[in-house]
Amino acid sequence: MAGIRWPPDESEVSQIGRQVASVDLISDDDRSVAADSWSIKSDYGSTLDDEQRHADASEALSVVSFRAASDYNSDKEEPDAEGVSSMLGFQSYWDSTYSDELANFREHGHAGEVWFGSDVMENVASWTKNLCNEFFPRHSPNYGDSMNCLQHEKELSGWSVLDVGTGNGLLLQELAKLGFSDLTGSDYSEGAIELARGLADRDGFSHIKFLVDDILDTKLDRKFQLVTDKGTLDAIGLHPDGALKKIMYWDSISSLVAPGGLLVSTT
């Protein structure tokens, strides 16, 4: 799992000379949260500099065997000779999976599968809040004043949060338990969103917003202070066109994280 802090807005960046140090990176070296703990220094520009990212994207695309543009919107099952693909990379797989899980929820009340397991999900939520606490004081006028702990918690709870590829939405429920309140979950599977809404209503988290949206072609026009991704990048990478789709993913994510905000990715 890794946390990446987005660079501040243009006015702040110009003051510090766009140094790489403007992006803070914290990895969980002491406690394995997923199968492996890892740090991101993105191949597409750790500072998310547009020119560098697009230059790297162009280089990557130059070695890709291009297919018809319409193919990238389909669940074609041609194997990729240079990479590992899986049914988990196709939307049709997840639509079928969440159709079954939605039926089980309606009949038996089951929440469905938790990607990486419930213990990992709880650790991700607590690790994420600790990461937010790490960065919050730097921007708070009350930093260093121990009498303002309650105000600290109140302001942190107001962070806008987006969970991409939210699935059943249980990670957002965990974040809600830790005090976050402005919570949104997106997923390209309508069944997943319907399941997430049902679980949130049942469990007393009806304030969490859920919507159908494809991270590779997002229609969201809002920026979030915290964006979380638990396994979505993994699934994208398992598509036969995973190399290209991961480039699309980083471009899309960069449009959703607010300046100075955080991206937490678990893989």
From TrEMBL:
Pfam families given in the database record: Methyltransf_31
Gene Ontology cellular-component terms listed: cytoplasm
An MF annotation (GO) of this entry: protein-lysine N-methyltransferase activity
Domain of life of the source: Eukaryota
Methyltransferase domain location: 157-266
Name this polypeptide is given: Methyltransferase domain-containing protein
Species: Genlisea aurea
